[in-house]
Amino acid sequence: xxxxxxxxxxDLLRNHANDxxxxxxxxxxxxxxxxxxxxxxxxxxVANRLxxxxxxxxxxxxxxxxxxxxxxxGYEFIGLFHSHPAPAVPSAVDLKSMKLWGDAIWLILxxxxxxxxxxxxxxxxxxxxxxxxx
Length: 134
What we know:
Elements: E1 2-5, H1 7-20, E2 26-32, E3 37-46, H2 60-72, E4 76-84, H3 92-98, E5 105-110, E6 116-122, E7 125-133
Parallel strand pairs: 1-3, 1-7, 4-5
Antiparallel strand pairs: 2-3, 2-4, 5-6, 6-7
């Protein structure tokens, strides 16, 4: 799987993570899903209502609203973004939550080294997703 983002999306996500640091930043990713690719067209930055440095939660009403807005634009749900004060790999908490989100891509930004990592849980297997930014 390939995740394609525009540099403006990456900048938005990095700025959001910097703004809320040390709390985990959160965003929803929407766009197009051609075969074996996920092309981000819009990013919806959302608040981490837990205010936690190790996990996140989004208000369900905000999630529903974001999904409805994306549907009106003809976009599909691609996945979730969040930041970690650690390497850009899913934590044990993330792995449990990933099971609830189907084949959504999880894009993670490490606030310690600035690296981006993307992962997808497919049939119980964690797979690394290639991130391409232009």
